[in-house]
Amino acid sequence: MNLLEVRNVTKVYGALTALNGVDLTVREKEFHGLIGPNGSGKSTLLKCIAGAEIANAGTIGFLGADIGRAAPAERSRAGLSLKFQIASVLPELSVYDNILLALQAQDSLATLLFSGSRRALDKRVTTTLAQFRLASRINDLAGVLSHGEQQWLEIAMALAGNPRLLLLDEPTAGMSAQERRATGELLAPIKQICSLLIVEHDLDFIRDICDSLTVLDQGQVVASGPAAEVQNSEKVKEAYLSHA
Q: For residue 141, which phi and psi values (nearest 5 degrees)?
């Protein structure tokens, strides 16, 4: 089943065409990598899908509905979740409370006021922190976590609403090789419940976790298909070499 269908999406900023007729398909329970040289339009495409930017032309279909003009909150309720490259955890709150707030965001105000949701959600919070190797940091302030741990915390927060599709923008940027490997291991189990569209510059990381790849260059799709096939494409090699 196709979860996300992007068709002929174009995004223009003044004289700059950031995206030019882009097509992209993400299937259910698929990890799909979005790669390309700097400035190729990868992050802009994620923003158009999530609703942070509105495309000038084209359609964005999610679960069979056209969401191209929907507000970000509507897209989130439909099952989309986006984590930007720069971590945006709440640094003065504990690791526990960051996850708790992400879970509580799914509840109505009345539920929060009268349900004792902190007690009700305690098991989900602790289970989530254990899954993302943060159980030992449960009472620490999020602001004192390492860069890699903050990224893991924010991915956990993005998954709190049980999205059908998670959008990640360079989640391993600034990480050590050990942290990158750990991030791949942490992401692998979510394929059973959630598809992933990930922008990443680390081609080894992408190859290890992704089923399919789409390559952008100068706002256009150069190649798309199974990861092994795309990485061996001469067009892809040329796109990267031309920016070397």
A: -70, 140
CATH of the domain at 79: 3.40.50.300
| pLDDT tens per residue, range 95-152 | 999 999 888 876 554 454 445 566 778 898 999 999 999 999 999 999 999 999 999 9
SS3 content of the chain, % helix, strand, coil (to 5): 40, 25, 30
pTM assigned to the model: 0.88
In the chain, the number of structural domains is 1
- pLDDT tens-digit map of 13-36: 999 999 999 999 999 999 999 998
Residue 112 lies in a domain: no
Q: Which residues span the domain enclosing 11?
A: 2-86+164-175+193-241
Give the pair of three-digit tokens for residue 241.
């070499």
